[in-house]
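hey so i finally got around to running the thing on that chain from the lab meeting. sorry it took forever, my laptop kept dying and i had to restart like 3 times. anyway pasting the input first so we r on the same page abt which one it is
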Amino acid sequence: MTRVTADAVLMSKLGNCRTLVEVCDDSGRLLGYFHPVGVPRESNGCSNLSPISDEDIEKCRTQRTGRPLSEILADLERRS
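ok and heres what got predicted. didnt touch it at all, straight out
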């Protein structure tokens, strides 16, 4: 992770923020987001909950499709 040290000017802009902040350059191009420490994610419209249910995740995890690796490797050996 890269660490950026905020100077006095940036601290005056971000120091009292209590919500998620978009950080842009002079032309308005979005550079990233600043999420203040200690502010709950939910207050920024974020959630730690996945939109995919645990049941759907388990179903996808256990679902086996495609060919076995041994079969794929055998095909590659025949082609070389």
